[in-house]
């Protein structure tokens, strides 16, 4: 705690864990979808919830709930527990209706302790850090030049250059690449990361070409300066 080392055994850790009764996906209530802001989404995945296979009654009931939520522009607030060893989560279940299927899309939401509210003083109160009109214009130009959507001149439609839903998880793809390599070459070192995986982590080439002029202007208007060496501090984790 701070600079003090507090002994904490595995037994203490197990005793403090919240004990659940097992798997759970229970509706706690409903609210307007507008009350669940995007910036409150947590976790690293979205779960799609379907009715049990070959259970027609469950499918009809779930379909009625999904369509009702969609018509009323509401979401379900649910309690989710993966298994008895997992900590309970609170999340929102959104109605998702496609031509091929319909389901609930679950997204984890924060508890009160997960929220951090930071208040920063306005830049307008400090003339030293107030950007000039030229600097603001340069940033506006950079943002516009790096837009991931553009208009197709031939058809007059909006084209999405970067489509996240079409990209595979590069972490998983790298893992699969290494597993396959080790299966066929157990004694060989791991191969380098494939080029298409590295390309997924970069901005599209056409965007990078468009933004070069704006980027150079931003670099000129916002020069970086060496702040000097910061005095090293010893924290509790190094004691």
From TrEMBL:
CDD domains: KU80 (cd00873)
Gene Ontology MF terms in the entry: ATP binding; damaged DNA binding; DNA helicase activity; double-stranded DNA binding; hydrolase activity; telomeric DNA binding
Cell location: Nucleus
Gene3D superfamilies membership: 1.10.1600.10, 2.40.290.10
Alphabetical list of Pfam families matching this protein: Ku (PF02735), Ku_C (PF03730)
One GO location term (cellular component): Ku70:Ku80 complex
Upper taxonomic lineage: Eukaryota, Metazoa, Chordata, Craniata, Vertebrata
Organism superkingdom: Eukaryota
Keywords: ATP-binding, DNA damage, DNA recombination, DNA repair, DNA-binding, Helicase, Hydrolase, Nucleotide-binding, Nucleus
InterPro entries noted in UniProt: DNA_bd_Ku70/Ku80, Ku80, Ku_C, SPOC-like_C_dom_sf
Name listed for the protein in its UniProt record: Ku domain-containing protein
Organism: Micrurus surinamensis (Surinam coral snake)
Listed GO biological process terms: DNA recombination; double-strand break repair via nonhomologous end joining; telomere maintenance
Family, similarity comment: Belongs to the ku80 family.
Domain Ku: 1-126
